[in-house]
Amino acid sequence: MVENDRWGIFFAHLVLILGVALVVFPVYIAVIASTHPSGTFVRGVMPLLPGPNALENYRTVIFEGRSRAGTPPIGGMLWNSFVMAMAITVGKLSISILSAFAIVYFRFPFRMFFFWVIFLTLMLPVEVRIVPTFQVVADLGMLNSFAGLSIPLIASATATFLFRQFFMTVPEELMEAARVDGAGPLKFFKDILLPLSITNIAALFVIMFIYGWNQYLWPLLITTDPEYYTIVMGIQRMVTGGDSEPLWHLVMATVVLAALPPILVILFMQRLFVKGLTETEK
Amino acid sequence: MATIVMDDLHKVYAGGVKAVTGISLDIADGEMIVLVGPSGCGKSTLLRMVAGLETISDGTLKIGDRVVNNLEPAERDIAMVFQNYALYPHMTVFNNLAYGLRNRKFPKAEIDRRVREAAEMLEIAQFLDRKPRNLSGGQRQRVAMGRALVREPAAFLFDEPLSNLDAKLRVQMRVEIRQLQKRLKTTSLYVTHDQLEALTMADRLVVLNGGKIEQVGTPMDVFSKPASVFVAGFIGSPAMNMIDAAYLHDKGEGNALPALPQGADLIGVRPDDLLLTAPQGPHLRLSGTVALLEPAGAESHIYVMLEGNSQPITIRVQGLPTVLEGAQVDFYAALDALHPFVRETGLRVA
Question: Taking the model in full, what pTM does it have?
Fold first, then answer.
């Protein structure tokens, strides 16, 4: 790397700034649009400066909605999304860390077979198995329920695989020391493996939460009751569901609100896993 | 406090590899036994069998009066110090020491007392609140020792505990472990590949090779009367010189030649026992060319090529020798410094 090449630095910054602008601009537009009164968009010109209606728009979206235009209050949808994302995240993490624990630390028949079976499911994303999954969930009577929203998405080969890789880097002597110290398998898991995995758990939590939050197709399929609509599908309904023109200012306010929880999760968890990174050692 | 009795222990791994074949050994109460041998000789496997970390394929193992073959490590009343210390990285030193006691449901006050006592003894009391990563190698080693100590077990098992330390610290910890063990009088089994560690620390040392015991004895016994060519080569540094008896009869001179034991076709002699001046009493004389001089501070090593012998002979002398590289040199060995072996069996004659 040439350090005092001014043109190089200039060019590097130019590329970076362009890249950032490209990513940030649509978000900026969404935020700006959510602050304008409804009339603004009829003219067909997108304003680039904030409008006067920010508070009013957000209040409308969160508390009142415009049911005639297909927009119920989104408070409930945010909550539904949150519950679904949390259920998926917590479920995925607990199941995958336990299965990784079993695969790495126990010798049982067909251990590697089961590992590869789990691994194979990596190749089957939700969309591929969506029809049979829908059938199963419908037969179990889980349509229009939180269980139906979250349980089919809980199994995770990715997380199992990542935990397995991490467990294999934990020195075997640690497990042996724990055995000599009188810790059974579950105690070893709880007292030693789990605390050592905090960093991994935090990182996976972020990924899984966003995965869960962004689920669109699945909630769309299995919920018909507005009680269980999630925010992501709510946005879609707002755009297409009404009789009139979509109310873009409200749609944009909803979009901004829908984007907030994942951002908050990242901000909160980032602190945790940076801390984790600097404090754990193997 | 307990004896450990191994009776014909075998270890066969799943793949059919035999790591330990028929080891019988009685360890007295309070004795420090050092298992020594090269990599892959089965010493660590044997230790781990005693610890309960490896299953015992055959034979019986008694700690105290109990047969412990099928007991979990925690039920065997032993404590182990691992090569990589195996400290719990997320726990403070205090919790590292206390963990085993907590699992055994000791009362809080007792745990506190024992941990502080052990920390005091090992001079790590000021680190009790730290995490292992904030400690130096030597301090971690002490914590690992402490974790064994607080348990007040029937036996300590050490698995090459000093091999991750630098040379200076290793000597220091070696002395401390030995002193501690003598003070506590806890039966100990110590595994090392370092022959010096074995010689200095053991009450009795056990030389292992290929899953079998080559020799058991006090360090001085093993050093002065190695039972086999393997032991002779492994214990003592630089290693013992091995010279064909036929070569001695052919090229050697001196009044010791007729006195060599019958049947011995390989003669060992330690580098310290080769002298540049003729000793009193029966001795033999050899001559060769100095290939290399190796000054090592208080002593020097002289490597001598014998005519028609491809292996150099090592001679250890005090200070700097007067000989020069490339020069012809005569050297002598007293009769009683010769170790007679049979090449085929590798065993000592008489």
Answer: 0.82
